[in-house]
From TrEMBL:
Residue span, CRM domain: 1-96
Database matches in PANTHER family: RNA-BINDING PROTEIN YHBY
Top-rank taxon: Bacteria
UniProt KW keywords: RNA-binding
Protein's name according to its UniProt entry: RNA-binding protein
Keyword set includes RNA-binding: yes
Amino acid sequence: MLTGKQKRFLRAKAHHLSPIFQVGKAGVNENMIKQLNDALEARELLKISVLQNCEEDTSTVAEMIAEGTGADIAQTIGKTIVLYKESKENKQITLP
């Protein structure tokens, strides 16, 4: 689990990122979880956009993704989710 200070730090880092994944009508599936895991390993910090035609609400989608990938939710704001997962091979972010 992330502390409040760590979440603030990650939110500040994620502010300039643009979403690289979109969750649409199909929702969260195994293939998406696998791709997110690969992307989290490469980048550690991701923004995900939840499209309007998605049947789940943003917080449910965030929980499903976090559970599937083992990542921490740094923030959900509007239809955007910010995820963090420490990389095993490619560590770039040092948490406070």
